[in-house]
């Protein structure tokens, strides 16, 4: 049995981060409040995961002012897209491996 | 966009735990060393995750003595099987949602 977890990306080892990347893959950009409502999270929880993904350069933050009100939006980077797709592919391999192999009696 | 992460199980929020559950789904039972080699982990790292999965009653530990030598094996519980399958199904939904929806320009 191949090591099914070696291609999984530790940075995505959290369902909130999976949710953020999934949301930013299917939306060109989203605000903090958009993501918070979409994933039903607290401010603090979301902020810490956004920071980690930003640090890994998987997402970009754009801070604008609209009618003198701060408007912060997030978007996925090319690196983020590439790494997230690879992570999903590795997850798919793990899932497919479960579906094909029946439990074997060993030892 | 439905909240794709609500059905993900926090206990499986770690690739090592995904690997352990995957291995114990396709093998009736495995020893500590089996799992350690399969997933290329350190003793300490593996032990902490096995403990958490045992505490959640997703795996069972059997401690035997073979020729007076301790032999500890692990196997998945029915609860573990059920929860892991639900987790994989939620991951599959997240992945499929990525494959179907193209990035939309919004706002």
TrEMBL record, chains A, B:
<dbReference type="InterPro" id="IPR027395">
    <property type="entry name" value="WH_DNA-bd_dom"/>
</dbReference>
<dbReference type="GO" id="GO:0006355">
    <property type="term" value="P:regulation of DNA-templated transcription"/>
</dbReference>
<dbReference type="InterPro" id="IPR011991">
    <property type="entry name" value="ArsR-like_HTH"/>
</dbReference>
<dbReference type="Pfam" id="PF13601">
    <property type="entry name" value="HTH_34"/>
</dbReference>
<feature type="domain" description="Winged helix DNA-binding">
    <location>
        <begin position="16"/>
        <end position="95"/>
    </location>
</feature>
<protein>
    <submittedName>
        <fullName>Transcriptional regulator</fullName>
    </submittedName>
</protein>
<dbReference type="InterPro" id="IPR036390">
    <property type="entry name" value="WH_DNA-bd_sf"/>
</dbReference>
<dbReference type="InterPro" id="IPR036388">
    <property type="entry name" value="WH-like_DNA-bd_sf"/>
</dbReference>
């Amino acid at each position: 049995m191949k090591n099914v977890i070696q291609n999984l990306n530790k940075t995505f080892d959290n369902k909130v981060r999976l949710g953020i990347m999934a949301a930013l893959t299917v939306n060109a950009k989203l605000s903090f409040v958009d993501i918070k409502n979409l994933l039903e999270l607290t401010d603090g929880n979301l902020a810490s995961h956004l920071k980690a993904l930003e640090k890994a350069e998987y997402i970009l933050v754009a801070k604008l002012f609209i009618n003198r009100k701060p408007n912060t939006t997030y978007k996925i980077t090319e690196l983020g897209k590439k790494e997230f797709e690879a992570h999903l592919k590795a997850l798919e391999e793990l899932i497919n491996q479960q579906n094909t192999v029946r439990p074997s009696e060993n030892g």
